[in-house]
Amino acid sequence: MSDNKDDKPYFLKDGTLVIPFSCPDHSYKYWKKEGKKLSEILTEMDTDKETWKKFTTDHHPDEAKETAESGESKG
């Protein structure tokens, strides 16, 4: 992958997710056969819960941690 920061997915100030056409790593192009799930990309980008919910109905990684922790304390 190129060292150019602009070749990787990023967010605009208004919250728009940008996946540059020039991105040589096709795994970031979630709409392609070889692409990762959008939730995997958002996880890599360390997306907060509010932004996460704008793009997917999948559970945010922090929710899985919270569920596991609450289950452990009940046991």
Automatic annotation (TrEMBL):
This is Uncharacterized protein. It comes from the Bacteria. Residues 54-75 are annotated as: Disordered. It comes from Desulfovibrio gilichinskyi.
